[in-house]
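agent> step 3/5: call structure_predict on target 'Signal transduction histidine kinase' (Nonomuraea dietziae).
agent> reason: downstream docking stage needs a structural representation; sequence fetched in step 2, passing through unchanged.
tool.input:
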Amino acid sequence: MTIEGPFWRAIAVFRVASLVYAGVLMAQHEGFAEPLTGWVVIAVMALWTAASTFAYSVRALRGRPLLVIDMLVTLACLLATPYVQGQFQGQLGSMPVPAIWVASPVLAWAVYGGRRLGAVAAAIVAVADLWVRVNGPDSPVLLNGAVLLFMAGIVVGHVARLAKQAEERMQRAAEMEAAQRERERLARGIHDSVLQVLALVQRRGQEIGGEAAELGRLAGQQEAALRELLAVRPAPTGSADLRALLMRHGSAQVTVSTPATPIVLPGSVAEEVAAAVRAALDNVRAHCGPEARAWVFAEEGEGEVTVSVRDEGEGIEEGRLEQARAEGRLGVAQSIEGRVADLGGRVSIISSPGEGTEVEITVPSAQPPASVDRAVRGRRSPGPSGRDPAT
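tool.output (status=ok):
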């Protein structure tokens, strides 16, 4: 059962109650000027109340055709008022023959389409009611009914739309929770079998060497990919878990260490940080060789996230980065420092000849995604390939 169900049942109750009220008014005034026509209108209202109650209870029947028919039937009953009441219309008060029953389609349109559609329905009924009053003898033109119709259509439509959105969010949360439970169940079984076998193949392949070393390297890559798949947890809408993006870089040569809990950042921030890490790893492979070992560490502090990339290479000679900038090779300046600067963060590069290099990236953890998107769009594209050349 959807959250709309209670709304449609409430409208059905309103139809029945307002129908009874219209019947009481008809009997109280002895059928007005045309009793036969008046009771025919009440009969039509009763039949449509029963039919619409059933139709709106079936989800497949709810749609614009039913809403239009509902409005047409209501308008027909409302526009019959001058013919039923005749010369007594102005003397008997301002209430039309259907009385408050005319609000039923307004409520139905509001529940179906929100406050805008509810306001449209209220305007249609209000115009018809105004026409009835203008064409009645000495009938006072009152706007109270129109105001109430608009208030009902807008308020009910707004509440119904909020309820639908809440239901959708709850459904997504339930699906994410179910997916996470299934992932954890699979992880328990895989951890004791597949991951251990892949780790054993990787270790033994490196020990044996030769072709077995290549098999070990491939096994290590598959182990890292599988661990990433099992470790990924859903992040809130519009956000991303930085751990999942960093784990993609894991391989036999690259070790990625992250906290056990998600590092949730705005999606654009997480993507840019991961891209900066990728650029740093590209530099490691370019200057230290494809088999060079590297380590990626991520941690979340108070209001900021820090990711460091370390290697065991020969390090960067003093003045080498400045020389690269002067020669127009802006890999570090654009792919790493430029990206992080656009995020409002900072980059620290620590390197000594013969002792490797550490690139430390620190970004705020609560920066609004919109400002980051503007900064990223404003940053100059590095080149046709989409990747900056290595320093």
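agent> step 4/5: record observation. The CA atoms of residues 180 and 233 lie 7 Å apart.
agent> proceeding.
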